[in-house]
Amino acid sequence: MKIDIVSVFPEFFDVLRLSLLGKAQDKGLISIAAHDLRDWTHDVHHCVDDTPVGGGAGMVMKPEVWGECLDDLLRADAGRPTLIFPNPSAPLFTQSDATELSGADHLIFGCGRYEGYDARIPEHYRACGIDVREYSIGDYVLNGGEVAAAAMLEAITRLIPGFMGNPESIVEESYTGRNALLEHRQYTKPAQWRGLDVPTILLSGDHGKVDRYRRDEAMRRTDRIRPDLIGRLVCSELDKADLALLGSLGWDLSGEHPTRIE
Ligand code: ADE
């Protein structure tokens, strides 16, 4: 996968050389290039922003500079590119977006700063037939798209086959699959630490019991922390023990999805 990132702080992305992302680049699984948007300016001040039309606080990133930059990056494209603009006012980026995008051959992240970018930039490239996505990574506002781009990039690339040392660790994770639950809590040795015990059932060696304990724990945590995820489970895909537990936690399981009994 080829990844281009456009930012006024391209050095921010030096961290992507670390850890598994660095290894994936060394292996040739992905290539990442961070570009300085100011390289596409023509004025002495390398200006990339201007005041908002219609008034208001802050500055908005100019379409002409982005246009020249993205045209160049798209011209160099061999496969089918996907343009991604982090934006706090866009749909939420989810694990299923990460899974879908892990099959892409070329991603281009356009990181806005200030009050954001001129709305005609994504509109123009969409009209050119390019797959353009705008995503928020959460209901909070960051100083720019860089942190959001790095988060999405990590969520996407770790799903590329061959990226993880142990691909099984992806299968059991939170948010994965149709029946996504928060993951159960994890423990390692020693069995007792500062007066706190590892749940004894995890030491029993009985895999069936361990699986059931973890599944119940995952359900209870999800019920408590993210009941919206319980509401998206598909009742016909739950086993008897799942149904009994959710029933005891106050869920009605007679429909397609669980609903909370008032
Ligand atoms: N830019 C600023 N805040 C953001 C957010 N929450 N998600 C994506 N891009 C952003």
Describe the protein's architecture and organization:
The protein has 262 residues and is of the alpha/beta class. It folds into 2 domains: 2-167, SPOUT methyltransferase, trefoil knot domain (Alpha/beta knot, 3-Layer(aba) Sandwich), CATH 3.40.1280; 192-260, Orthogonal Bundle (Trp Operon Repressor, Chain A). Helix content is 32%, strand content 15%. Strands 2-1-6-5-7 form a 5-stranded parallel β-sheet. Helix 3 packs across helix 5 and helix 7 (207-225) runs parallel beside helix 9. The longest helix has 19 residues, at 207-225. The relative contact order is 0.12. The model has no long low-confidence stretch (mean pLDDT 95). Adenine is lined by residues 86-88, 136-138, 140-142, 145, 148.
Identify the CATH class of the largest domain.
Alpha Beta
Strand-and-helix sequence, N→C? EHEEEHEHEHEHHEEHHHEE
Structural class: alpha/beta
Ligands bound here? adenine
The largest sheet is: 5 strands, parallel
Largest beta sheet: what is the strand line-up? 2-1-6-5-7
Q: The CATH topology of the largest domain is what?
A: Alpha/beta knot
Round the mean pLDDT to the nearest integer and report it: 95
C-alpha termini separation:
48 Å
Low-confidence stretches: none
The CATH architecture assignment of the largest domain turns out to be: 3-Layer(aba) Sandwich
Let me know the CATH homologous superfamily of the largest domain: SPOUT methyltransferase, trefoil knot domain
Radius of gyration (Å): 23 Å
Tally of helical segments: 9
Anisotropy-based shape: elongated
The tally of beta strands, per DSSP, is 11
Helicity level, as a percent range? Answer: 25-40%
